[in-house]
Amino acid sequence: MRRAPGRGLLSTVVGIVLVALMLFPVYWMVNASLQPAGNTLRGGWFPSRPDLGGYVTALRDQGRNLLTSLVVALGSVALSLGLAAPAAYALARLRVRGAGLVLFGILITQMVPGIVVADALYGTYSDLGLLNSYAGLILADSTAGLPFAIIVLRAFMLSIPGEVIEAAQVDGAGQLRAFRSVVLPMSRNALITAGVFTFLFTWSDFLFALTLTTTQDVRPITLGVYQYIGAHTNQWNAIMATAVMASVPAAVLLVLAQRYVTAGAAGGTVE
Amino acid sequence: MISPARPPARRIAALLAGATALLLTAAGCGGGPAPGEVTSITVLDYYTDEPEHTQWAQTLSDCGRTAGVKVEQTSVPGASLIPKVLQQASSRTLPDLLMLDNPDLQQIAQTGALTPLDRYGIDSSGFAPGILSTGTYDGKVYGLAPYASTVALFYNQDMLAEAGVAVPRTWDELKAAAARLTRPGRYGLALDANATFEGTWQFMPFLWSNGGDEKQLDTPQAAQALQLWVDLVKSGSMSKSVLNWTQADVHDQFAAGRAAMMINGPWRIPALDKDKDLHWAVAPIPVPRAGQTPVTPLGGEVWTVPQSASKARQEKAARVLACLNSPSTMLALAEQHFTVPSRTAVAARYAQQVPSMAAFVESVEAARARTGELGVRWPQAATGIYTAIQSALTGQQTPEEALRHAQQIATGG
Amino acid sequence: MRSRSRPVAEARSGERAARWMFLAPAAVYLLLFFGYPVVKNVVMSFQQYTATTFYTGSAPFVGLQNYAKVLTSDLFPKALLTTALFTAGSLCGQFVIGLGLALFFRRRFPLGGVLRSLLLLPWLLPLVVSGATWRWMLDPDTGVVNAVLRGLHLSSSGIPWLTGTSQALVSVILVNVWVGIPFNTAILYGGLQDIPPHLYEAAKLDGAGPVRSFRHVTWPLLRPVVGVVLVLGVVYTLKVVDIILVVTGGGPADATETLATQAYELSFRQFEFGRGAAMGNVLIVISLAFALVYLRAGRRARSVREGIA
User: Fold this and answer.
1) What is the CATH number of the domain that holds B120?
2) Tens of pLDDT along A115-138?
3) How far apart (Å, rounded) are the C-alpha atoms in residues B60 and B42?
4) Which residues constitute the domain of residue B326?
5) Using an 8 Å Cβ cutoff, are A228 and A239 in contact?
6) Do A123 and C49 touch (CB under 8 A)?
7) Which residues in chain B touch residue C252, judged by CB atoms under 8 angstroms apart?
8) Do B224 and B161 reside in the same domain of the chain?
9) Is C55 within 8 Å of B393 when comparing Cβ atoms?
10) Which of A16, A22, C23, C128 sees the fewest Cβ atoms within 10 Å?
11) Which domains does chain C have, with CATH numbers?
12) Is B136 an 8 Å CB contact of chain C?
């Protein structure tokens, strides 16, 4: 596997070109967001005179929706991790009857299209008054995060040495203490990975936002972008500015939590 | 469909609505002061484009002031208004005051979501019969439109002069002119052929002026009208993007100089006027043969008061609705949006005051209501028509095949 | 003995209950948000469940009428074919490019790790954002893609990306490929890392070039992972609604309507919940067929991996 240094550099150059090609749409989004508004319908290759008008419009129209998305995403992270961590522990370390069935169920959830879930929830939510509510969206959005979190956390907890846990378990009531004081702290990295992905899944949710909200009250940013496309076709700078703002969490997490993101992308699903 | 079951249905709906309201209030989502002292009402419309959006916000808040309420306006794109209304009707979150495009009123009234306006003592006398009929279902008035409008041909005077093209009056002239006006980066004509009722609306003047009819779509007259659009796209005089454009996009293309002519409505005039370098004018929609009069569809939005749990809110909404339809507001709106007041006496006064609008006043008076023949079955026919437009313009079907299919959609279900 | 064993047994059953308490909340959630919707969807698909149901509260059972209407509509065969093409096209593109990138990034070079994680960005962005951006880029008249093609003299009039029926399908596939590449790259890269290096060295000693070592070492050992990636890809692609709604809205002339977008259209734009549910169930059946393949592939992957280890 050893190579001449020149060849490594060549690979770097090729790699940069490939990544630049792949990320061109992201560049174009940023570029379009900095073009001035108006009816010109076309922009330059570079935002030579960056115009923040698009961001001003976007923040005015969509600022609240960004907050909504943040609340829903954080709520979903809390709910998913809160349910997934103990479940993953039970599936990994406690010999629970029916564990196999639950694992099988989690696999099956991946085959259920979101539109089917939305179909059924719409009527029920309508009766329960959960349409247009944070709670309703958080619950529905966790359908993406929870199964993923269980899989990631279980995979990690399987790798915790048994003696460590056994040492902490004194009796039946000790299960909870072992879980809280040993398993959870040791699973910190896996929890972060699961949390990061749950956050991104929920932040990106479109289908539930589209189907389970009917008014402006609780409106995630993804729906804001979608409605912008229909309504303000001549303000592509504002649409793209909203798109850029909606991309911020993904970009920030990719930089700050790179390790966890890479782990989640490679792990989880295959194991 | 639900008329036999209506009285119990209403009761259940009211009960459910009450229960929902209770739940929401209990959950802290209802908010606001106690029933009785209504300080604000919600409004839903499709005026998303500027300057229309701001102008309507102003008018609504002015009328709200006369009724003593704050108006919270929400605007959604035209194509998503009806799905939104159905969704809100089913979740009982309809606004207090609802705007509908006039051909949709009967369908929505049929579901029982709207209240008849006589309940609030609103005066609907003196309205032009055409626009009043679109707001009427089952003999009762559910919606009133402050103004009516229709579509026409807008053209860029500089481009026509430069190409030495006269304003087209017939279909042949339209094809020839559009071809001669087409340049790299510019199309001769822009219109809206998208897969929504907007596409259908723009097609109606071509269908009707050629003797076509929505009751029977698979006729040679209809096929010829559709063939005209196909020819315009095939010859490259019209962008294939017409398949996706909304009327707002069509406007943007024209305003950006990427189209020399467009089919659009007079409510675009304020936006066109903003651009001082754009020299444009309006002409009637070209007709099949010289000397014919175009038959155009009657446009305009009706305002309605949906069913709700709160009588007090409904009363307030009705007062705002009455204000919107008062002679003075109607005149102001018409002047703002270059449309035609729907009370005939006001329209006559308007034609005198603004002579340049006299032609529009006349054409609106002759305009045909889309629900005139089919009533609640219009949406099905309209769906058939835009489906046919899409199939024919993409070349999937010939106009004849496409319209045969359209007729099936219109009559089937 | 007997008198002492009873408390132990009690403690055991208490402990079993305590263990269950760890699992129960998640299990209940899964039942409520996956089990219940699937069951309710089956029930709804036999009912006339429409907008008026919300007013009248009644949804009469109509037998197989919804299925009959959905399966015999002109749109169904069209949507089925579109779904098949969309899925196959997306998978091919994602997989081939993803594998290429995974193989490329397997070699070590400066900045390799950073570049590899940057590559994940398209996958992490909200699909609506990607869709909106691509829609802007693919606009036939003003988009940058046609501008580049014209600039390179590859196309004089531009390609009707969003307005031609077959081109629009290509467009949504293109966008879905772009979104899916990072996921494929990441999983396949992980699979490649699991292949023991000594196998390559042995192949090299046998005089195998890169092509032969790919054919005889990489591919056979990667195959279980490939199976998983492809089947997961099918299952995820069948569900896609966002990208299509944003990029083409299912048009032009319904050319990009898939089973999933049809289910959405029926339920949430026409408010024909019964028919939407029927369409959703057709989608689930297709997904389940692939699920079986997935489970078998998963088992095979595990056994192969255990074999290596």
Assistant:
1) 3.40.190.10
2) 999 999 998 998 888 989 999 999
3) 11
4) 3-27+34-148+299-366
5) yes
6) yes
7) 195, 243-244, 390, 393-394
8) yes
9) no
10) A16
11) 64-308 (1.10.3720.10)
12) no
